[in-house]
Amino acid sequence: KQEVTQIPAALSVPEGENLVLNCSFTDSAIYNLQWFRQDPGKGLTSLLLIQSSQREQTSGRLNASLDKSSGRSTLYIAASQPGDSATYLCAVYFIVRQAGTALIFGKGTTLSVSS
Amino acid sequence: NAGVTQTPKFRILKIGQSMTLQCTQDMNHNYMYWYRQDPGMGLKLIYYSVGAGITDKGEVPNGYNVSRSTTEDFPLRLELAAPSQTSVYFCASSYFPVAESTDTQYFGPGTRLTVL
Predict the structure, then answer these.
(1) I need a labelling partner for B24 at 20 to 30 A (CA). Which of A94, B30, B46, B52 fits?
(2) Which residues from B are below 8 Å from A when comparing CB atoms?
C-alpha cells in the first residue's frame, strides 16, 4: 500500500532563508507527483506537478525534484517570505479501478516564515 | 468558468442526522472525487467516479454514499452522522484518466462539517 511521508511536520525560519521540504513514498511505481499549498481554513492550491518521466519542475522561487528510484521528492523554496507561511502537501497519483486516478497525500509540512 | 464548487461551506450536524454535500464542476470532466481531511492530516479518498452512473469506493468509504447522475454533479451523502465524520470535505475533478500526463485534479474550496 502506497504511503506518503513528509518531513519535517513543522518548520519555522526567518525571512530570506532558503529551505527544503521533503516527501517520501513507499512504492516507486508512481505516476505524477504534485505539491500543493494550503492556507489555514482554505482549499488546495496547486504549486507544481512533476510527471513521472521528469526529474524536476520550477516555478518562480519554487523548485520541485523527483527521484522515483529512491522514492523521494523535495520542494525547494528560495528566499522565503512571510507570505510563504502555509501548509505544504505532497501527493502522488495512482491508478484506481476502471482506469481512473486518485491522489494519496502526505500529512503536510506547516511552514512559518517570520519577518 | 467557476471550476469546482461546493455547498455548503460550513455545517453543524447532530449525531444521527443526514445531509448531502453538493459538488458541481463546469469543466466537462469525467472524473470526480471526494476526499476528507482530518485535522493535521493529509486528504484521504472517500469515493470517486469515472463518469455518469459509475462510482467506486476509495480508502475510507464507510458511512458515506455517492451517486453520479450527470457529468457535472457528484453529491456525497451522510446517512447517520457520527462525530468521527467531523472533517473538511473536498471535492475534485479531472479530465484525463491516465496519470502519465500533465493532468491535474482541480479542487473545490471544501465543506467544513462538525458533528456534535
Answers:
(1) A94
(2) 31, 33, 35, 40-45, 48, 50, 54, 56, 58, 90, 92, 94, 97-105, 107-110, 112
